[in-house]
Amino acid sequence: MRVHRSAPVRDFTVLPNAVLQYRRLSYTARGLLADLLSRPDGWREDGRHMADTSPQGRGAIRRALKELADAGYYRVEKIRLPDGTIITETHVYDVPRAAAPSTTRPVPGGASTGRADTLSKDRHQEPTLPAESPVEPPDGRADGRPGGQSDEQLREAVATLFRVIRPEPRLRLGEAEARALAPLVARWLERGSTAADLAQALLPGLPAPMHSAAAVLRHRLEHKLPPAPSTVRTGALRYAECAACHDPVPEPGICGPCAGLAPRPVAVGGGEAATRPGAARARAALRAARAAGPHPGGLVTCR
Q1: Nearest by Cα to 215 from 175, 180, 167
Q2: Which residues are CB-neighbours of 255 under 8 A, at least 6 positions away?
Q3: How many degrees, rounded to 5, is the angle at CA 151 between CA 147 and CA 152?
Q4: β pairing state of 248-249 and 240-241
Q5: Beta strand spans in 148-231 (E)
Q6: Between the CA atoms of 41, 47, 50 and 54, what dihedral angle is there, to the nearest 10 degrees?
Q7: Are 161 and 182 in contact (CB under 8 A)?
Q8: 38 Rama class: left (phi>0) / alpha (psi -120 to 50) / beta
Q9: Do residues 154 and 188 make contact, with C-beta atoms less than 8 angstroms apart?
Q10: What angle do CA 211, 216, 221 make, to 5 degrees?
Q11: Per residue in 141-197, pLDDT tens?
Q12: The pTM is what?
């Protein structure tokens, strides 16, 4: 499947992919939720009007609203006004919320009135939900800048990034965008990567069309980051020889058995007690072979 997207500059709505791809909701419920989230804050429309202005009937809209309410995307709350009047207030979320008990709460002021066509969508309106707490990177600070990076390292990272992306005109960045990506580039450089390594990771296979060069670069810098070099040193162990028996010892000098401080361990094969009889048998075999005559493969000698 190839997805073709346009780049709208007005009259568009940004929605989380988790909302549109939530397969536990029916397609009718997801479409209705997208329609509600595209409306300006203060829009007044009930389920009956939704059904009358759509191909689905009232039953389908009612079931879709129940799905959204059960999933935490849609909530209707009763509010008691100071004069005793009870009104309903509808809440639509782009992130599911826990179901609240259906109670009536008092609020000061009168009921909001107005027509839907008189409302205008404020694109600079602040979010009404609390922002998620930032997760601190495992090897850095909460602002995304790894600990220990100096300003000089960040300046070098910015210069390296501009040098790497210069051959690709689609990867045009502003100075602020480059500074935001500098901590990630600095991590690559700290792990031994070169400008050629960055170019190989960032330039090939760019998407077309390019909607956000900074987002593409950030994704590749984060997901293609090479592993940190191992800090374990595997240097070869050095040993000295005993001045008396030439056995390996940790430090120059004589070993414990030669110094009389420890018993000598038995070597493989029985030690000196087993070596002498074995050497005697080997010499006897060589003498017997010499007495028997010349060996086809050459002369056999022994001491």
Answers
A1: 180
A2: 242, 244, 245, 247, 249
A3: 115
A4: antiparallel
A5: none
A6: 150
A7: yes
A8: alpha
A9: no
A10: 170
A11: 444 444 557 888 899 999 999 999 988 888 888 888 889 999 999 999 998 899 999
A12: 0.34
